[in-house]
Amino acid sequence: MAVYTQLGAEALAEIIGRFGVGTLVSAKGIAEGVSNSNWLIETEAAGKAQRFILTMYEMRVDVDDLPFFLGLLDHLAERGCPVPRTIHDRDNQPFSLHEGKALALIEFLPGVSVGDPTPAQARAVGAALAQIHLAAADFARQRANDLGISAWQELAQACGGEGLASIHPELGTLVERELPRLARQWPQDLPRSVIHADLFPDNVLILGDRVSGLIDFYFACTDITAYDVAVTHAAWCFGNDGRRFYRELSAALLAGYESVRPLSSAERSALPVLARGAAMRFLLTRAYDWMNTPADALVTRKDPMAFARRLEFYADQANAGIFGSQS
Amino acid sequence: MAVYTQLGAEALAEIIGRFGVGTLVSAKGIAEGVSNSNWLIETEAAGKAQRFILTMYEMRVDVDDLPFFLGLLDHLAERGCPVPRTIHDRDNQPFSLHEGKALALIEFLPGVSVGDPTPAQARAVGAALAQIHLAAADFARQRANDLGISAWQELAQACGGEGLASIHPELGTLVERELPRLARQWPQDLPRSVIHADLFPDNVLILGDRVSGLIDFYFACTDITAYDVAVTHAAWCFGNDGRRFYRELSAALLAGYESVRPLSSAERSALPVLARGAAMRFLLTRAYDWMNTPADALVTRKDPMAFARRLEFYADQANAGIFGSQS
Fold first, then answer.
1. What is this model's ipTM?
2. For B10, which of A3, A10, A116 is closest by C-beta distance?
3. pLDDT tens-digit map of A174-222
4. Calpha distance B283→B165 (Å, rounded)
5. Is the confidence at residue A227, as pLDDT, over 60?
6. Angstrom distance (rounded) from CA B31 to CA B315
7. Using CB atoms, which residue from B2, B3, B24 is nearest to A112?
8. Which domains does chain B have, with CATH numbers?
9. Which residues does chain A have within 8 Å of residue B32's beta carbon, measured at their own beta carbons?
10. Is A110–B26 a contact, with Cβ atoms under 8 angstroms apart?
């Protein structure tokens, strides 16, 4: 959440000039995105104000992945999904370089990120997720999920048993118990597609009960479609700290999803293990970041325990019914 | 440069609802301001989009000062100065509290902050500065300058000779030489008024050669009017690192100022000592922040030496002519 690169007005005006979207009128660095620099840009052309997000990609995003990320936005937007279009420059390129860093100009979408979603909003999010799954079916590019199940063992080792125990005495035991179970039970033949893989409330813009935008596709990849449902479930159906499960949000999210793309019975049966996997993924990346971020750093560390609690919840047989038939 | 407080969409919608400016359509945390949280807000009323800056005041701003800061904006805006109006809430209050923190809704102004000003832009900035000095003449409130000359000795002591030497071997000597000179030579009977006291390029919005906004009045106070000219001179007429002086920017800034408010001969004669004072003020606050910010913190430390160089420049007799007659 920062602006890592300073761009003067002159550089910004030159950059915006490459796109044929009018004259630069305003540029505000915005505190969004995990590790990119973003500006909310306003231009004027023929008396009409237009807004855009200018993104400069910093270390975490690999430039080789940009054709996937940006091509996906265009593909989905063309098919009516609520995602921002990329603005191509005068050479019809979706991104270009500025002093060695890649940047892209992306459509601004209205809407706000909700903190306490309502069931109607969760339903709309489920439907929007299913919409991108269907619309991405004929997207030609692929991208491996580098934070998928094959990465978890290594992540756990990078944290180390002692490291995990330093966060919470039982965290190491939980990971040790669940990782082999996940490896054993992980489904092998479910439908795969492009998935968002990080559809937290932060990455959904909402107006009233309507999804006005799905954003931040920088974890998008090719993986099990229903795993994305599980990630979104873990992201939307609990209180932040993971102590409280919201049954109505869960039911609404799944019903919204199935109103657009019904789950097969194999997918539905796999949801409990996929949800444990989703909780494990965020538990591990948060634990790793926790251990590698000084306690007094200006970035807010996200508590890994919030996802340890979700993992325990999903692993509890008493909760097996939450993914039961939704229709 | 951060958003210190997280506000969910629900809280934001409730807050914006207090102002009667339509429905919340978008809210982006922006990376601006030294230690406040700011959001660029968009609302819609009767099909018309409006933009505002929502500011939440964090530790550095004293709530008791808000009637001065916000009242000043309204006072200046009413007199046609390019400053943002404050939006009063339904109870006609310019600020209110949210969970113990003060917040204000402020008009959004277009424009960008320039990195390499042109003489025409420097001229416009000088004229805008003079305009606020004149327009503030009948502003009823006063506020002491807590970073004025009476604070410098204490700031230097807080840094300590060793502390200053740890930044640069000659920094302590420079401060020791110049502080008593400033105390001895500081003018006592020049006109006083409200001054901005921090009019760096960051705090000026520009469109082409026109000043579209002066912002961030949170150092504004009552002090020697010509000291504000000196601060603005130190802020605009040098390369960032203070190694290079731009004679054309200096001449343009002063000519622009005098096109609106001519300096008296006493003010003009005092500019060299006032400029040394301005350089000392930023030298000392930057040195203090430098020593109290870990080198690996996410905030960019600003180099105190950039103002030590300006101080040396202003103290050099060879440069005495730069403040000579401008008319």
1. 0.82
2. A116
3. 999 999 999 999 999 999 999 999 999 999 999 999 999 999 999 999 9
4. 13
5. yes
6. 36
7. B24
8. 9-107 (3.30.200.20), 119-323 (3.90.1200.10)
9. 28-29
10. yes
